[in-house]
């Protein structure tokens, strides 16, 4: 019998819709038999919106509760795990409430407004013995698992330089000032929204590489170009060095006023390259180029393509269910430490780029 995880969803925006649609995909379609998913409650700031969401995306299922508040989802005894799909700066308080109500949590990226909030959430989850994970869905894709095997089996040698970009033209000039990409109170801008993905590839290819021996980044430099509309970042670039055991550098960027760079992500090793196709949050393929020796010519090239039923968010849901079934409070693949490193990097990039969130947005002080 599959272990069935009962989900409560908070918020009814775009990503909550994508996630829920994937929860309804038959796990057998991706050869999963050990876990299954059931949506039991949807919470929104209005009951009408929750009901509309259930009607549109959960086939109007009468067994799914429509709540006009998030608190009612946290209080629902039938909910095992809460999925948080609100804007970034609300994640902290939403997750605290969910954990205090005894629920496991899968929380959208960017996990919180700053690293101090993330650390405080992780501490709470540990105290409560509850599962907590940043919803970094790309980590669980079949493509990522396969790429990691090839990257780490030795032929390519150590990674040296990684380039990754995720951008999208949000047409912010047409958006209201309280849109989550523009409003500083909602952590608007490119970095917190798009930045997790270039950073993810740096974490996967450099931080996770066995030669790095789990060493944290040794330095971060950042540059922010502010929007002309509100005081959030329109385009941001940053570098992350890993020099304790590797001699490797990640060169990362994101923009909300330009289309994404065509190269997606390129990982350059001593003896070859891996080119990850766009979009880097859900790449359809990757190509490995093998050199005839260190710094040599490309002598062999292999492309791997991947497809599956659904949008790709169900793989992270399966991970959550498996971890909870096993009594774990943390995923081995996307650990608390990786989320903390990402948030610390973003704190540093915002500090260097002088992107200060408005007073009161950060609920836990940065210095803690
Ligand atoms: N993993 C991914 O692929 C992915 C993709 C896109 C976004 N995200 C992340 O998911 C989060 C939400 O993004 P989204 O694109 O789904 O945003 P969205 O469409 O604007 O939805 C956000 C939802 O949050 C709720 N909300 C609560 N307070 C709000 C406020 N003050 N202003 C606006 N909405 C508020 C609303 O739901 P109710 O009215 O029902 O309460 C709203 O529909 C962000 O943190 C983002 O980084 C992840």
From TrEMBL:
Reaction catalyzed: D-xylose + NADP(+) = D-xylono-1,5-lactone + NADPH + H(+)
Family stated for the protein in its record: Belongs to the Gfo/Idh/MocA family.
Name the enzyme group at the top EC level.
oxidoreductase
Where is each Gfo/Idh/MocA-like oxidoreductase N-terminal domain found? 5-133
Q: Name one Pfam family in it.
A: GFO_IDH_MocA_C3
Q: What is its EC number?
A: 1.1.1.179
Instruction: List GO molecular-function terms, semicolon-separated.
Output: D-xylose 1-dehydrogenase (NADP+) activity; nucleotide binding
Specify the protein name: D-xylose 1-dehydrogenase (NADP(+), D-xylono-1,5-lactone-forming)
Keyword match Oxidoreductase: yes
Instruction: Give yes or no: UniProt keyword Repeat.
Output: no
């Amino acid at each position: 019998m599959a272990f069935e995880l009962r989900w409560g969803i908070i918020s009814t925006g775009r990503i909550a819709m994508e996630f829920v649609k994937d929860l309804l995909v038959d796990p057998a379609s991706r050869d999963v038999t050990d876990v299954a998913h059931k949506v039991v409650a949807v919470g929104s700031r209005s009951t009408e919106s929750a009901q509309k969401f259930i009607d549109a995306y959960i086939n109007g299922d009468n067994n799914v509760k429509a709540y006009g508040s998030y608190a009612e989802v946290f209080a629902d005894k039938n909910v095992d795990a809460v999925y948080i799909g609100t804007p970034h700066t609300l994640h902290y308080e939403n997750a605290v409430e969910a954990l205090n109500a005894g629920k496991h949590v899968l929380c959208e990226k960017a996990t919180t407004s700053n690293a101090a909030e993330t650390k405080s959430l992780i501490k709470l989850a540990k105290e409560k013995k509850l599962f907590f994970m940043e919803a970094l869905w790309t980590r669980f894709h079949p493509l990522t698992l396969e790429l990691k095997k090839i990257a780490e089996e030795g032929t390519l040698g150590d990674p040296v330089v990684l380039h990754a970009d995720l951008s999208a033209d949000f047409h912010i000039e047409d958006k209201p000032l309280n849109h989550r990409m523009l409003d500083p109170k909602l952590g608007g801008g490119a970095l917190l929204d798009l930045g997790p993905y270039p950073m993810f590839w740096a974490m996967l290819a450099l931080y996770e590489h066995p030669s790095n021996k789990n060493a944290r980044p040794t330095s971060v430099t950042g540059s922010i170009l502010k929007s002309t509309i509100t005081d959030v970042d329109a385009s941001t670039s940053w570098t992350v060095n890993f020099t304790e055991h590797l001699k490797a550098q990640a060169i990362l960027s994101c923009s909300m006023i330009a289309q994404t760079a065509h190269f997606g992500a390129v990982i350059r090793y001593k003896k070859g390259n891996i080119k990850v196709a766009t979009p880097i949050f859900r790449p359809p393929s990757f190509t490995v180029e093998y050199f005839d020796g260190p710094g040599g010519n490309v002598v062999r090239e292999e492309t791997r393509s991947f497809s599956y039923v659904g949008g790709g968010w169900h793989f992270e849901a399966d991970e959550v269910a498996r971890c909870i079934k096993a009594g774990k409070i943390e995923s081995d693949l996307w650990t608390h430490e990786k989320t903390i490193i990402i948030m610390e990097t973003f704190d540093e990039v915002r500090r260097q780029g002088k992107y200060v969130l408005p007073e009161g947005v950060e609920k836990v002080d940065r210095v803690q």
